[in-house]
What we know:
The protein has 21 helices and 50 strands. It is α+β, with helices and mostly antiparallel strands. The protein is globular, with a radius of gyration of 33 Å.
Amino acid sequence: MRFFPETPAEERPAFHAAAKDFLERADPKLVRRFSPLARAKWHLAATGRGDELVELLRHERANPGVFAVRGLRRPRTQLPGVDGSSLPPAVRHLTRGELPVRSRLTELAWENGRLTARGYAYIPNVPSATGRRSLRIAALRRRGTKSTIPLRLRTVLEPRATAEADEHRYDWSGFEISVDPARLRSRGRWQPGEWLMGIGIPRRGGMSVGGVMKGDAGSAGHGQVRTLADGVRLVVGHDRGRLLLRVDVVPAEIESQEADGDGLTVTLRSRGTADDGRTPTALRLVHGATGREPAGRGATGREPNGRGTTGRETDHPLEKRGVGGDGWVRYTVRLPFAGLPVDGVAAGRARTLGAFIVFADGTTRRATAVEGLRPLVHPLPGGQELAVAADDEGTYVPRVRVVSPVVDRVEWAEDGELLLAGTYPAPGGGSMKLILRHERRGEDLTVPVECVDGRFTARLRPDAVPGYGGTLPLREGRWLPYFRPRDTWDHTRDVPMTVRPDLTGPLPAVRRGDHRTYTVERTDHDRIFIESGPVLGADARGGYRQRRLRETHTRTQRMLPLRDTVLYDSFGGRQFSDSPRAVHRELARRRVDVEHLVVVRDQQVELPPGVRGVEWASEEWYEALARSRYIVTNDDLGERFVRREGQIVVQTWHGAPLTRVGADLLGTERADLAHIATLEERSRQYSFFVTPNALSTPVMKRALRLECEILEAGYPRNDVFHAHDRVRTASAVRERLGIPEGRKVVLYAPTWRPGRGSADPENRTAPAERIDAVAARGALGDDHVLLHRRHHKEVGGVPGAGDGFVWDVTYYPDIADLYLITDVLVTDYSSALFDFAHSGRPMLFLTYDLEHHRDSLGGFSYDFFTARPPGPLLRTSGELVRAIRGIDAVTAEHRENYAQFRVDFCEPSDGFASARVADRMLDLGKGLD
């Protein structure tokens, strides 16, 4: 089905017959559970309507999951290129479940004694009204009854809904809902009860109703507790992600706590009497299992009543202290430290105890705390501590953990510096370093920190994070802080940083930087993080607005004259490197009278003087694509790009195809027929295509189905090996990295493994983990350094990085600079071997998964790699280390193969590839308006 548009006409009847047979045999109930688009696709396939199916599939590729809803009484799908009236009702009609309310809470706040819930809600594929007159209703429904309370809902502008939804515009789907707690009384009295908040949205054929769903951080992602009256509290929480309000009439609760050397003394208060059996008699602790930090919710559940857990239980009897002037009866209980579970506690893993109040009638209640209970942290032997606090719903949570850093001060300075300070009384705290870890990419960033007298102070300027000699903004995404021993590279001993639960009021702490917003916030109750927001504005985020920019803004820009600008695109804006950078140097050397623009993604590119960055996918980027006289790229510009008359597009590509790509994969499981079908048209958008050598030209012409001019100029990026200042550049690179003088440099640059994680055991491990960093340092560390450059698609850390021997250079701006300082290249199937061979220096190949790469991932375009490789093919880390130690002998053994390889794949190699490319592009541009 996926590749039906590329299926030859003579093969389509067989597919139609198979689809018909499938639907005839399939359970109708199963088919009915298909998505609306899937039902339509299978019906068209089974009835032989191939042309309409092609149109629908092409629409789906460009707009995944997007369709229109029509019909006054019965909502139905309207699909591009499909005659909807000819579809059976069971195919075209939408059920109520297929028109759900999608909602997200963005803020919960108490304002003027009322609870205000802010967020957005819409029906997917049903565009909302474009103004404030969007009709929606909100209500609370009491669980277990039909009782409802209508709520006041105000429609507000919320562009984030459109950015999330992708398919349509939902800017006015934002809401503000106000709840007066007094309306939750029953007959004028506070009664226990639970209320679910829901929203109704009118649509064609009726109304869709759904709950208000929690966010993932801050007030929108956590519960709250509000005291309504003496002994009555409102718990704002969540049930399966849906906002839930619970009126809790408290029979007994924890009022205070105090620790000494032997244990914890806890004070409870109660209104229960012997007559009603609600006199508290004991505090029961349930020793649960270890769990990942933070464990603010507790390992034993959140239910305020009932047991709801299993584990070793210990009852601690209460001692009555008397009745206070407020009518509450006080009790105390002693919890000795000696019996606390400490086994299994380690960095990032805590032991959470369930705390339950036991009553005289035999019932139990999950222990809750008075609003504002001050958290307590007390040291335990062996570098551990007892941390006791109320969670976001007021549940009393004791937890045994390793001594942990706790933030109690968060401040933004006027100059944009962020201060994080707090307590960290760990023995040897000064031997720890502070790490920010990117939640999605696994990338680590070291932040300067001072640890003095049990406190830490860290300072970070997110708009100017130090890099290789310069600064860049903090990469977009969520960064979690950890303390880590200075001699450790991996995450196994990381201690997570939390925020004091009673000091979350200043959060979120927001700072607007030069181009983005930085936010300090919390998740999982007390886990603090720093979020670097997107560079793109709300008018460019999400599928809907990107389509508008492509279709409307681009069309307008293409009507305007071309400008004398050169737009450089290197790896889709992830770097300013490779051949586009080399071409820029050549044009700058010639002082060509043009403006130089560079595509940047997330501001993560260092730019030289004289160039201006344009953010990928921004309005300015679309304008530059449409109006630049010259475009120099080493990446795919996308099938939607169409070269204008008078526009010169230079495709330098980004490597020689050692492994098969494009159309050469036909007949294998990795063949992407949809992409291959577009190759010819894509190539017609290039004014000319640069190839690196004579042997690669026919391979690339065939694999990429090139229908444009081919310039066999050699890769401009390899001119670096012939530059007159290469020695001075190499010295500057070593100084920039801080590599000690006299150390030989080994560069490990493995390629991306698209099949990693497959059933093949040799292909599961990340390349970074294939080198035994400890053994390699022992054998080579005295006179070598190992630079590791991960592929940009690979996430995670580099084993041993930062130990003085292993260096993570993944984000160094241009690998060509690293080639200049490299004495030995270690790679596998990467095109790096074709480039580095220009240096004439040794190459080693760590090919532990050679058979998998050859047999399962498409194989090789050239036979030299296995027949006469220019260096040894090694399987293990030990073999690699021995080869580096004996590099002279290894070089001699492969000298003949290496020499022939350079003849085959390194010509032309004279340092003038950039000049040849610049000559051709400027020649094509002469006399063009």
